[in-house]
Design brief:
nucleus, Leucine-rich Repeat Variant, 64 helices, mainly alpha, Mediator_Med12, elongated, Mediator of RNA polymerase II transcription subunit 12
Length: 1244
């Protein structure tokens, strides 16, 4: 029977019947409960003594005491923190045996007291709610700061947060103020308390992200917290990513560095950068200004891949911008306003990267893929369009047609340009004329026709070469002009390269005449080479003139680049590589000069690799100079890695010796290459090529009977005497003193001997370089001290200058420091009759101008061709050093007759120096800063003399213009230097046309920034056509690296007030840019609310982001007043996204939450409906802490907050925070594996 009854009861029909009965009973009880309750009037308040008040609190905490009994006597006289403490502790004085008041009963008392106070004071409901929120938050602040005993504090925190959350649900406090408090405390709290605050912030994140200012502040706090290497930092990083995914617009108001560090998507970073730069790339500041910035990127020079990303993949990249940048790149590579062989190779490498990017094949060295942001266009067609535009532009752009031909030849070699397509294009248009016309008008032909003749294509097919010959010369069977030139040029080169096959194996003997031997690296000059080159003529200032290559190879230089490339490919390079072992430094200097002048840099790289691969120690010094001077070329040709591998062994110091073993430094040792090899590696490493750094090795001294000075004197005697024991000359010296001291003593004694009338030998020069390299020291201090002492004793013998020049050549003496610290002070202070003027002028001629009289101790015929070649490469960069501007200043104020020769030479160098400064204005600024402050006006006058002195070389196109793409940087520097020396540094309106980011590179002084910004703001407010002013201000803001830009407060307020009126005078992008620009100048002006009103009424892609940025920086008081005003106004948002991000809170329900009698008087507690509230009422976030068995008991902290909380660390055993708080921590399965568990903590 029982089994039968159980089967019937457990059937589906019986269960359905029981469920229906259960639902009916519940509905009846609920309807009965609603009918039973009846609203009552507000109770009265009574004053209770402590005993009765304590009894009242005890009854309130007892859920069995009905509320209607407690409502009969509401205590009077306590509220705020005292009321909340009473609810928390369940007693008047915080008894340890009492329990907290249940949340529902606590809310009843809070609501009753609030209703009574509103009835008594007749306050505004919203104002009272804000006042009550302030009191609650003050109480929570005290609770956060009262952490003493962690276990008890955790219970208090659980109750406090639960009570506050219930008040938020009942609209008894302002959520906006609570959320702001949570975010503020998240940045102020200590250690474990932040974990509790973070958990609380996670629960309220959806509501916080609905407010622009609060959401931005939360993301900022999470970003700062995520930077910490802890479990809490990992959780903050996870939550930061979740917030960005939920509200991506808010992260655009964060600092750019935080976005990059947290891995925010590139699209959002791009948007944030545009907003931070006031949308300046979206405006139209003028092509010349934008081009000036692009040209500056090309001039400054980085690795090719980095330069491509900065140049082509700008934030405003598009197909039209990319094509314009391509034309600008071609023009930069071929213009006469720039110097350097590297330009055509850098341009070709960038075009190759552009081709790979458009084909979606460009991958960075770190493995990242660079996608193309525009629709690909044909590079070949674009190049042909650029060629067609050259004739239309005319000569005003100073295009060097030969450089353009070489550029197109490199592009054709990389298969990025088709010579056949150019030939067919010209033939199809009828531009190729008859042979008679071409022969008579070769120099007056159009640019495309001249390019057709000049473009080097040495590896072109035979059919293409025949087609080219037929196009230019017609059906001609006899030898053409180009073929005859090629034949004669090769004959001249054969005569020049009749090398002497006998290479001596020993050093030449020392000379006894003022004419020193010419090969300081063991090998003298070939007699044939010396007779071919002859002595250096008076006035030679470059390598070609110094080696007389113009006179000896006239047909080679008259040939077109097409013929020159054929000669290099078919004769010159095979000749040089045929016998690499026979090439010594002088021969390499000649070959390198030829190849560099012919732009055959790839052939030069092959020659250097062959010499280094064959361990040709004699040429390493010159090779290192060549590598350092043309580092950008090797990077563009992708030769950096191979050259670095080959040069690295020469940068290694000798191995250390065991105590008691004597070191031997040979006269021609590998140590002489160390400084230059490391210099070459440093030049390559500046282009992102990783190289090894080496440190000098010490040598322990041994006791000796002689003094170190005597040993150094004896070593110099041996090195100056013809002997076979040169390698042992310094053995005794380096055994008695450390290596660095030995090098200093040998240098000092060598200078003393040369000052007494002796003449240096090759053994002395190379041995001193080898010793300095082995010791790993520089000899600047020793040389400077000796020179000053020699001039004090009126030494007149100039032979010691050869030693200084050799040390500069080997890299153990800095020529820039010598000029700046020794020569310049001498020029400024020495008497005109001083005996040191002759040696000073000799050093200036050799180091600065490479212009010496034959027979001088530093001339080409004395020092040798290799040394002169190396010093010339050093001189190429001297105009970019810090000591050159002080030298100009010293020459300008020097009154000695001996300096007149240098002044005349400076006149000849002005065009080249001006062109060099156009590319590197930073060098001029650094040199200007190296001059004493009181002498800077004179230095500025000397610089201006150089710039103005070359104006007669060309037409008015050489005048410095701020809005010119190639002259804007140097023109801006001219104004910047005038600001630095002016007594009234007020900016001029002409600076508005300057490239601002270039100008701000030179650290504008505060006296300039504030007036300049104020002037722009005043112009923005007063102008009827503020568009140009907005563009200038936006570019200035984009270049500014700080936060707020200093300006006048009144001007900023006036500009903010005028922004609504400006909206009708400019385009939408310009108005938004004006808002962002003024926002970088001030955030305290009250009229910002009018701007916000206009923003939320507009609909566009940028309005919401600008509104977020404005709200995120406004003062809280200003923002709160505007947000509350929107509650009662009829303002409507056109854009839904803008409206959702500028809300304050939803409108309050009516009647007030404080006076809702139904909620104020719930049913009697013992008879309340058990289904009226959830069965499981979790009252706090940390209720699970008490059930964790694998965690330690939290220790008592006597001096501050604990370093960790149970919610912050995990100790394994399956009881970690990721599993204990799945609802609190937004951790998905996909990212859970990326977080490593924290290490276990040892138990006590």
């Amino acid at each position: 029977m029982q089994t039968h009854m159980l089967d019937r009861i457990g059937g589906p029909a019986a269960l359905q019947l029981l469920g229906d009965l259960f639902e009916r009973v519940r509905d009846k009880r609920r309807s009965g409960a609603q009918l039973a309750g009846a609203p009552s009037p507000l109770p009265s308040r009574v004053t209770l003594n402590d005993a009765k008040l304590s009894e009242y609190v005890h009854q309130l905490a007892d859920p069995t005491v009905p509320l209607y009994r407690l409502a009969e006597r509401i205590p009077h006289g306590f509220r705020g923190a005292r009321l909340l403490d009473m609810l928390l502790h369940g007693s008047l004085h915080g008894s340890s045996t009492a329990r907290s008041v249940p949340l529902s009963r606590a809310l009843w008392l809070i609501r009753i007291i609030g209703a009574l106070e509103l009835d008594a004071t007749h306050k505004d409901v919203h104002k009272y709610t804000c006042d009550w929120t302030v009191r609650v938050l003050h109480w929570m602040t005290q609770l956060v700061a009262s952490l003493r005993e962690p276990t008890a504090w955790a219970s208090q925190w659980t109750y406090g947060t639960a009570l506050v959350d219930r008040m938020v649900q009942e609209s008894l406090i302002e959520p906006y103020m609570l959320y702001r408090w949570i975010i503020t405390q998240l940045g102020k709290a200590h250690d474990g308390v932040r974990a509790c605050l973070l958990q609380w912030a996670v629960l309220h994140t959806p509501a916080i992200l609905g407010h622009a200012a609060l959401g931005t502040a939360l993301l900022s706090a999470l970003g700062d917290l995520a930077a910490e290497p802890s479990w809490l930092g990992q959780q903050a990083d996870i939550h930061f990513a979740a917030c960005v995914k939920e509200a991506p617009l808010l992260c655009t108001a964060l600092p750019l560095s935080m976005l990059a560090a947290r891995g925010v998507p590139e699209r959002l970073q791009t948007q944030a950068q545009l907003l931070h730069g006031s949308l300046a790339p979206l405006l139209s500041p003028g092509v010349d200004i934008v081009d000036a910035v692009a040209i500056s990127l090309l001039d400054r020079g980085t690795s090719t891949t980095t330069l491509f990303a900065d140049y082509f993949l700008a934030r405003h990249a598009s197909a039209a911008v990319a094509q314009h940048r391509l034309f600008l790149l071609y023009h930069w590579a071929c213009t006469e306003a720039r110097m350097g062989h590297h330009r055509i190779f850098v341009a070709a490498a960038l075009v190759q990267l552009l081709d790979e990017c458009q084909a979606q094949r460009l991958v960075l060295p770190d493995g990242r893929h660079l996608p193309c942001p525009w629709t690909p266009f044909s590079l070949g067609d674009a190049t042909l369009q650029w060629i067609d535009s050259l004739d239309a532009n005319g000569p005003k752009h100073h295009l060097h047609v030969t450089m353009a031909a070489r550029l197109l030849g490199v592009l054709a070699q990389k298969e990025l340009f088709s010579y056949a397509a150019l030939l067919q294009r010209l033939m199809a248009r009828g531009d190729v004329r008859a042979i008679s016309e071409l022969r008579t008008s070769r120099h007056s032909a159009t640019v495309p026709i001249r390019l057709l003749r000049k473009i080097p294509i040495p590896r072109a097919s035979i059919s293409l070469q025949q087609q080219r010959r037929f196009t230019i010369y017609g059906a001609r069977t006899s030898e053409s002009y180009e073929e005859a030139t090629e034949r004669r040029a090769i004959r001249e080169l054969r005569r020049l390269f009749e090398w002497d096959e006998v290479v001596p194996s020993a050093l030449p003997s020392c000379v006894s005449s003022p004419m020193l031997s010419s090969a300081p690296l063991s090998v003298p000059s070939s007699p044939n080479l010396s007779s071919a080159l002859g002595a250096q003529p008076h006035g030679a200032t470059d390598l070609l003139n110094g080696f007389q290559l113009h006179q000896r190879l006239p047909h080679l230089w008259s040939a077109s680049p097409y013929i020159q490339a054929r000669i290099v490919d078919k004769f010159l390079l095979p000749t040089l590589l045929n016998d690499v072992s026979g090439i010594h430094p002088d021969r390499f200097a000649l070959a390198a000069t030829l190849l560099t002048s012919l732009h055959a840099m790839e052939a030069l790289a092959k020659l250097m690799c062959a010499l280094l691969d064959g361990h040709n120690l004699m040429c390493v010094v010159s090779i290192c100079h060549t590598i350092a001077a043309h580092a950008r070329v090797w990077d563009a040709l992708d030769k950096t890695s191979s050259l670095a591998d080959l040069i690295s062994p020469y940068a290694l110091a000798d191995a250390p010796l065991l105590p008691g073993i004597t070191r031997v430094v040979p006269a021609t040792g590998r140590g002489m290459t160390l400084a230059l090899a490391r210099h070459a590696l440093a030049a390559l490493s500046d282009l992102d090529e990783s190289v090894i750094r080496y440190a000098p090795l010490p040598q322990a001294p041994l006791p000796s009977a002689l003094s170190p000075v005597a040993l150094a004197t004896e070593a110099v005697h041996v090195l100056l005497t013809p002997s076979a024991a040169w390698d042992d000359a310094c053995t005794a010296l380096i055994a008695a003193v450390p290596l660095d001291e030995a090098a200093s003593l040998l240098c000092t004694q060598a200078l003393n001997f040369l000052a007494d009338g002796h003449f240096a030998s090759d053994a002395m020069l190379t041995c001193l370089a080898s010793l300095a390299g082995t010791a790993g020291v520089c000899l600047d201090l020793v040389a400077h001290t000796w020179i000053r002492s020699a001039w004090e004793r009126q030494a007149t013998e100039p032979a010691w200058t050869t030693l200084l020049l050799s040390l500069i050549r080997f890299g153990y003496l800095d020529g820039d420091r010598l000029v700046q610290e020794v020569l310049c002070p001498f020029l400024r202070t020495a008497h005109p009759s001083h005996a040191g003027w002759s040696t000073c002028i000799i050093l200036l001629h050799a180091l600065v101008f490479t212009y010496t009289v034959p027979g001088s101790p530093c001339s080409l015929d004395v020092m040798g061709h290799a040394c002169w070649y190396d010093v010339t490469l050093v001189r190429m960069n001297l105009g970019l050093t810090d000591g050159f501007v002080p030298l100009l200043h010293a020459l300008d104020i020097c009154q000695a007759p001996s300096s007149a020769d240098c002044t005349q030479l400076l006149q000849k160098c002005r065009p080249q120096l001006r062109t060099l400064w156009l590319s590197y204005p930073d060098a001029v600024w650094h040199g200007f800063q190296a001059v004493d402050a009181q002498r800077r006006p004179e230095a500025l006058r000397a610089i201006q003399a150089v710039l103005d002195g070359s104006s007669n070389e060309r037409t008015d196109a050489w005048s410095l213009r701020l809005d010119d793409a190639f002259e804007g940087a140097l023109a801006a520097l001219d104004i910047r230097m005038r600001w630095d020396v002016s007594t009234e540094p007020l900016p001029s309106p002409v600076i508005w046309r300057a490239p601002m980011d270039i100008l701000l590179r030179w650290d504008l002084p505060p006296a300039i920034v504030a007036p300049f910004t104020t002037m722009l703001l005043m112009e923005l407010a007063a102008s009827d056509r503020p568009g140009p002013t907005i563009v200038t201000l936006a570019r200035f803001v984009q270049a500014w690296t700080g936060n707020l830009i200093p300006c006048d407060t009144k001007a900023a307020t006036r500009a903010v007030t005028a922004l609504p009126a400006v909206a009708s005078r400019v385009s939408r992008d310009e108005w938004l840019s004006a808002i962002l620009s003024v926002l970088r100048c001030t955030t305290t002006a009250a009229p910002w609310v009018n701007v916000l009103d206009l923003l939320i009424q507009s609909a566009g892609p940028w309005e919401a982001a600008v509104a977020v940025r404005v709200q995120s920086v406004l003062p809280p008081a200003t923002l709160d007043a505007w947000l509350y005003q929107r509650l009662s106004s009829s303002l409507r948002c056109t854009s839904a996204s803008v409206g959702s991000l500028t809300r304050y809170d939803s409108a309050r329900t009516s009647p007030s939450p404080w006076t809702q009698l139904e909620a104020m008087y719930p049913p009697v507690e013992p008879n309340r409906d058990p289904w009226a509230c959830p069965l499981l009422d979790r009252t706090g976030l940390l209720s699970d802490l008490h059930a964790q068995k694998t965690r330690e008991t939290m220790p008592s902290i006597q001096h501050g907050a604990p370093p960790w909380l149970p919610s912050e660390q995990s100790y394994g055993d399956g009881d970690d925070a990721l599993s204990r708080y799945p609802a609190v921590l937004p951790l998905t399965k996909r990212r859970r594996s990326s977080i490593s568990p924290a290490p276990k903590r040892a138990r006590h």
